[in-house]
Design a protein that fits this description.
Shape of chain A: elongated
Number of domains of chain A: 2
Number of helices of chain B: 7
Radius of gyration of chain B: 26 Å
Distance between the termini of chain A: 35 Å
Largest sheet of chain A: 6 strands, parallel
Distance between the termini of chain B: 18 Å
Strand content of chain B: under 5%
Oligomer: heterodimer
Radius of gyration of chain A: 24 Å
CATH class of the largest domain in chain A: Alpha Beta
Number of helices of chain A: 12
Structural class of chain B: mainly alpha
Strand content of chain A: 5-15%
Shape of chain B: extended
Helix content of chain A: 40-55%
CATH superfamily of the largest domain in chain A: MTH777-like
CATH topology of the largest domain in chain A: Rossmann fold
Largest sheet of chain B: none
Number of strands of chain A: 6
Chain lengths: 291, 205
């Protein structure tokens, strides 16, 4: 007896040209950015904890911020940096900012410019940017002993001793909070060294794919809050009551996720109708490899 | 003399481990000196890395190896950034700053953004519910994909609690187990190197 022929539509769907998928993803990204719908955003307990940790600090408190990311992941971490910096400025905190990534200073300068302009703050009076230093782990260790040894000058070449704001600030001990927004294992070093060895309260921001790796550190209280990916940044913006790139981007991210989920479901339905999901099924038709 | 590197490794590693736990200021000063040495080594590593990059791409260009035009672009970019950065600095309005904002930043973002297209295509073709485990993974992935974005909350208010449970219970348990495993593995590997049992870093087994 001849085997039942798989449905034509299912076979065609299985062999869907990948360029069709690319067009769908392009539209799912572009349309919500062009026509925002402002989908609701509720803050998760982790982001709320990060926000509250910053919010509880009294005005004038110094915060050490290490912003460790490059342009490849700026879509997630740049809006996060701007939101956290704006929160610090709005609360009257004094962020001392540095980076351990060579291609990061350009992004950080932009984030500082946007945040300081929005909140009316001035360089070297309300914040300092120390710039980049190579060495990652050894620099993080060194910050516990002497910031001046690691960064004798700020990003613009001004000796730290010539910046009145830096007077008496020379190690983790002088900072009641360390914030690390990172797209790499540098976050691990900060947790091991700044949070654990030097016992500094710490808030962490990470990319969405990294964020779940740090949940155990939240429950062990080694970090007090965790901002994960663009969604975390959007939640932070929501708590700040501002609309930045993260909240605008979440509409696009939502539609892309829905599109991918629908594609996966459709792919499985098509596979079912072609016999590929039955025990011993060969798929009924060759799965398209795309072009 | 054969044991020289092993002795140096043992002494430096045990000293650093001890310094990590001894808060006495003299010990910490000693650690600061070692950290400065490490930073000097890092600086030399950057120079060495740049030279190696130059030499390997130069060889490709001279040999007209496959993809040599890309090596020309790499060498040109390396030369341009090094010379312009040294002469002009990297401040706002300088050539390096413009290059960073107009070339480096958009290119890096574009490369990463392309992932969305390939992930979507790969998910459509590879994410199949062929058995119970794959079905469980597929179901969880779809719930997470929808539930972790704003539209999930818009579609069904139950999505956020479900995704939070998935993240806080099964995910956290697995992550904690993996972290402990990695930690124990790292200690074991470090001990093998410190005690000279593992000598592969010397270039021989």
């Amino acid at each position: 007896m001849a085997a039942k022929r798989p449905s034509g539509w299912a076979v065609r769907l299985m062999a869907l040209d990948r360029r069709v998928i690319f067009v769908l993803i392009f539209l799912a990204t572009a349309l919500p950015l062009l026509f925002p719908v402002n989908l609701p955003i509720t803050a998760s307990p982790r982001v709320k904890a990060a926000f509250d940790t910053v919010d509880r600090l009294p005005a004038g408190t110094y915060v050490l911020m290490s912003l460790d990311y490059e342009p490849d992941i700026k879509a997630e971490l740049q809006p996060m940096s701007i939101a956290v910096l704006r929160h610090c400025f709005r609360k009257g905190l004094k962020p001392i900012v540095l980076t351990l990534y060579p291609a990061a200073p350009g992004l950080i300068e932009r984030a500082l410019a946007i945040a300081s302009e929005a909140e009316g703050k001035k360089r070297n009076e309300d914040f300092v940017f120390l710039g980049y230093k190579s060495g990652s782990q050894s620099v993080i260790l060194g910050l516990g002993e002497s910031i001046r040894t690691m960064f004798p000058r700020d990003f613009w070449g001004t000796p730290l001793d010539d910046i009145p704001m830096m007077k008496g600030k020379n190690s983790y001990a002088d900072f009641p909070l360390v914030i690390n927004l990172s797209g790499s294992a540098i976050a691990d070093y900060y947790i091991r060294i700044a949070a654990t060895r030097y016992q500094r309260p710490m808030v962490l921001g990470a990319t969405a794919v990294m964020a779940t790796d740090y949940y155990p550190y939240l429950s062990s209280k080694q970090i007090l809050g965790l901002i994960g990916g663009m969604k975390g940044a959007a939640e932070y913006e929501r708590l700040m009551d501002i609309t930045g790139d993260a909240r605008r981007g979440m509409d696009a991210q939502s539609l892309i996720h829905v599109t991918i989920a629908l594609l996966v479901i459709l792919g499985n339905v098509a596979l079912f109708f072609t016999g590929g999901l039955k025990p011993g099924g060969s798929g009924g038709a060759r799965e398209g490899t795309g072009r | 003399m054969r044991n020289g590197p092993l002795v140096i490794t043992f002494l430096v590693a045990t000293s650093l481990v001890a310094m990590f736990f001894i808060p006495h200021h003299k010990v910490q000063e000693g650690q600061s000196v070692l950290l400065n040495w490490a930073n000097v080594v890092y600086a030399f590593a950057l120079i060495l890395g740049s030279l190696t990059l130059w030499v390997s791409h130069q060889k490709k260009v001279l040999a007209r190896a496959e993809g040599w035009p890309y090596s020309v672009v790499t060498l040109a970019a390396l030369s341009f950034v090094t010379v312009a950065g040294t002469v002009q600095g990297v401040e706002e309005g300088t050539l390096v700053n413009r290059y960073y904002n107009m070339v480096n930043s958009p290119l890096a973002s574009t490369m990463f953004a392309l992932l969305a297209f390939f992930i979507a295509s790969a998910a459509f073709r590879a994410f199949r519910a062929r058995n119970a485990e794959a079905t469980l993974l597929l179901g969880t992935a779809i719930v997470m994909m929808i539930g972790r974005v704003s539209v999930g909350e818009f579609l069904w208010s139950g999505f956020p609690p479900v995704t939070e449970w998935l993240l806080d219970v099964p995910n956290l348990a697995a992550k904690r187990a993996i972290a402990l495993g990695i930690g124990l593995g790292a200690i074991s590997t470090a001990l093998k190197i410190i005690l000279g049992i593992d000598r592969t870093y010397l270039g021989r087994s």
